[in-house]
Amino acid sequence: MRKTSSSLLPEQLKRYVEPFRVDDTRAFRLASYKTAERGGIDKDSGQEIIKANRDRLSDLQEKLYAQDRWSLLLIFQGMDAAGKDSAIESVFDGVNPQGCDVHSFKQPSTEELDHDFMWRAARRLPERGRIGIFNRSYYEEVLVVRVHPEILAKQKVPPKLVTKNIWRERFEDISAFEKYLARNGTLVLKFFLNVSKEEQRRRFLDRLEEPAKNWKFSMGDVAERKLWDRYQAAYQDMIRHTSSLDAPWHIVPADHKWFARVVVGSAIVGALDRLDLRFPKVDKSELGEFKKVRKALQNENNSALRVKKAAVKHAAGEKSEVASDSSASRGTGRPARTN
């Protein structure tokens, strides 16, 4: 794929989004999605798409901010070493950081545990005109908390409310929350970076063998890896119950990082493009004021030029007068007068 003009981009990108989009319009089974998919392209072609998406995203983000009507919430989930951080960094390379906010949700604080499970995420929602990026999110409450029941026990939920239906109830709460956001102008896109267990093993080994990556490794990662099957089951149940037209999931093949970035960037650009974002139009009365201001600024420049020319002319006149006096004094033998 060599032709990447922004006018053709939205149509071209569909083939990198639609096969991985889950919006509750068809049955879902996580095992049906290949982790090493490359979309029929090679890495060089993928890099071209990534660059074109960055350019287009930069333009769309500026219009999103200027229009100040919509906001965009992006949610990234995935197993350890799935490439969430690097995907965010790559896709948003070159986008104005003043229009984006990235939040990473880790172990909840004492204050957060004194609130409902959505509270800390709700406080970080993007304002109109801005892009909010959640690197992990409120979905941890139906993933890690489900895999580790001891965490739920620390959340101070009244015991009578902790029933066998708690996960279904949380799915319902999350779906209702996302529908509420959609109805109020927040576009919600969710990405599950689907990495294979074998690729995770290779990335863990890289972190151990390369000194520059040692800091990324945690012994806790190995402990969580042992629970791989339980996490995969939790992800499948979560995606199946929380995918919707208002807030679709994208099952991103993550074994090849470059293709994961193609899918993520294409989904974001395509969704923003469908909003038909435009720069605000200026009404006629303001255009009239703009003309007055433009004229005043131009006159200000012209006035400055006139003053400068007058000063130069005056200085030249003084210099000529001094030269004349000097010449006269040489002719009479008298000293030249000084001012």
From TrEMBL:
UniProt-recorded name of the protein: Polyphosphate kinase-2-related domain-containing protein
InterPro entries: P-loop_NTPase, PPK2-rel_1, PPK2-related
Record-annotated Polyphosphate kinase-2-related domain positions: 41-274
GO BP annotation list: ATP biosynthetic process; polyphosphate metabolic process
Pfam families recorded: PPK2
A GO molecular-function descriptor: phosphotransferase activity, phosphate group as acceptor
Catalytic activity annotation: [phosphate](n) + ATP = [phosphate](n+1) + ADP
SUPFAM superfamilies the UniProt entry points to: P-loop containing nucleoside triphosphate hydrolases
Domain of life: Bacteria
Keyword field: ATP synthesis
Disordered: annotated segments: 308-339
Segments crossing the lipid bilayer: none
